[in-house]
UniProtKB/TrEMBL annotation:
It comes from the Bacteria. Residues 12-142 form the Glycosyltransferase 2-like domain. Keywords: Transferase. One of its GO terms (molecular function) is hexosyltransferase activity. SUPFAM superfamilies: Nucleotide-diphospho-sugar transferases. Pfam families: Glycos_transf_2. InterPro entries: Glyco_trans_2-like (IPR001173), Nucleotide-diphossugar_trans (IPR029044). The lineage of its organism: Bacteria, Pseudomonadati, Pseudomonadota, Betaproteobacteria, Burkholderiales. This is Glycosyltransferase family 2 protein.
Amino acid sequence: MIEPIPSRPWLSILIPVYNVEAYLQECVESVLAQADAGVEVLMLDDVSTDGSALLMEALRQRWPDRIRLLAHPRNQGLSAARNTMLAACQGDYVWCLDSDDKLLPGAIAELRDIVSRHGPELVLCDFQLWRAHPRLKHRLRGEAHRASFAGPAGQLLHSRADLLAGMCRKGQMHAWSKVVRRSLWGDDLRFPSGSYFEDMATMPRLLLRARSWFYAPSVWVAYRQREGSIVSNMTLRKAADLSGALRVFSKELVLAQQEDPGLRQPRIAFLVSHMSARNYMGAMRFLAAHPQSEGVAEAARQFAQDFLLSSPLTPQQLLQAYRRHGWWMRYLRGRRWLESDDLKAAQQAAS
């Protein structure tokens, strides 16, 4: 049962919940400490086995007019939780926030100012890496302010080519650094249920739909660094999902290029190929670290096919482009994988 809310909110913040009792209160408090009456918070319990569900109810009792609770009858994963909340939310804009992260003070006020003055379909923000015990090396790495976009800031823009290029350069495709007009999702764009790297599979597709966007180079989200992340605990299944994350996007990009000449620019081909190569190399590094695992040879062939299908440039063309742009470290690191026998065999099979 979805509880009614008094009036239509301008912003819905979606928080999926699964065994995050230790973090959830701080997350929710970071939102409601700065939210105005037009902000609704949706939380969905994905059958937690700790005290998360009880904490959710306690938080709802604390803010009965601001929080709406949902629940799945069985555990379905992050994508399904977000999809259920997308269907239930009522705000004009939607912000997906992970339950172990938090919003920094002033984020919602700055967002509302942008929305009221410019009305973009998509708003991008920056973030910080949030560590329990930050050290000097973390500050020197710039973890207090990580840019999610490379391009013009502080103005309403409409070029999908500039948007896609700036996102591909940074590679920060996470959903929580993007606030999206709810209508942009439509009824046909959702996170892939049962898959890892769901943001990589979804956010590039969403970028193709945005006709207006605004980049705020401000740190709005604190992204918690903790053990147990997808990347730090890679498996063959996760590697496969990473490798194939751009399959649908690559098809939709071809269709979008037919109506938007800007998306046919050489820089788009290069940067999309670069993003595809990052996924391919990340998946292949797992295979290289587990050479005796069952199914490695078959997986390597599939990963090569995934790259060739999602990259506008051939491996040889991408390496040449790295050199032409002066991306020497990318060129040197990429040679191992982009000149591999698996890719050469996949090219021959496709020709």
